[in-house]
Amino acid sequence: MRGRFITFEGGEGTGKSTQAVALAQRLESLGLGVTLTREPGGSPGAEIIRHVLLSGAAKPFGPDVEAMLFAAARDDHIRCTILPALEAGKWVICDRFADSTRVYQGVLGDVDQRFIKALERVSVGDLVPDLTLVLDVPVAIGLKRAAGRRRGKNPDRFEAEEFEFHHKLRKAYLALAKTEPKRFAVIDASVPKKTVAKHIWDAVNARLEPTKAPARLEDVAS
Ligand code: Z5A
């Protein structure tokens, strides 16, 4: 049986990485096979492209080229990591996916929607997440958290954008979530971590029923 595919989305410092780890651990505690991964990155080839993108080295080429690089990284990530895990029946938890390109490059970077869709067609094909959790916090809180986590290190290519950029980002995610209410769940992530984790778990339970999923094959066999 194909595994389940859950993606986390949202702006900077909304708590995606924290909650992706917590969800992966909770699913594992049920005896489910889990692959925790991220974008850009998640496979050796895609991690190299991540470095190019987040260092800002590709910024001078413009958002169209950045969108192509994110898509190239995604193509490698899907082939090397995501599809093999799903085919093995695992739950794949991914920190950002194609919706990030739709929002960052498509909406914020003003890249033509037809171009974004064409890139999705070649890189993602018909791989649609079973559930996408959009973590939502007021921009000031998200930026404060991201700065706290950096502890004095320079912000990356996207963190360095202005407040207005992050405000538009938040609005774009909320608008995108409304277009596919069956796939998206918007989670208020301004509350303490444990409360956010509970709301996420409720959404995962309601939509994908992990407690009824078969445990790992090796566990069943032993
Ligand atoms: N990007 C793109 O443009 N196009 C694409 O297609 C893709 C990506 C895939 C990847 O950066 C960048 O690439 C990203 C978009 C762009 N832009 N930026 N920057 P990344 O992978 O390095 O980082 P990120 O994805 O933006 O996540 P983040 O900023 O690192 O934050 P986060 O994962 O959402 O949050 P966190 O690390 O879990 O938490 C941040 C801090 O807040 C940390 O100290 C936590 O302990 C704390 N925290 C978390 N939750 C809470 C709560 N509930 N209360 C209090 N404190 C909390």
Protein model, in words:
With 222 residues, the protein is of the alpha/beta class. It has one domain (5-221): P-loop containing nucleotide triphosphate hydrolases (Rossmann fold), CATH 3.40.50. Helix content is 55%, strand content 12%. It contains 9 helices and 5 strands, in the order βαβααβααβααβαα. It has helices at 16-29, 44-55, 63-87, 98-108, 113-123, 139-150, 163-179, 193-208, 217-221; strands spanning 5-10, 34-38, 91-95, 131-136, 184-188. The chain has a 5-stranded parallel beta sheet, with helices on both faces. α3 runs parallel beside α5. The protein starts with a strand and ends with a helix. Ligand Z5A binds at residues 12-18, 39-40, 70, 96, 100-101, 104-105, 145-146, 148-149, 156, 158-159, 189, 192-193, 196.
Q: Any descriptors?
A:
single chain; 222 residues; alpha/beta; Rossmann fold; five-stranded parallel β-sheet; 9 helices; 55% helix; binds ligand Z5A
Could you give a quick summary of the protein structure above?
This protein is of the alpha/beta class and 222 residues long. It has helices spanning 16-29, 44-55, 63-87, 98-108, 113-123, 139-150, 163-179, 193-208, 217-221; strands at 5-10, 34-38, 91-95, 131-136, 184-188. A 5-stranded parallel beta sheet has the order 2-3-1-4-5, with helices on both faces.
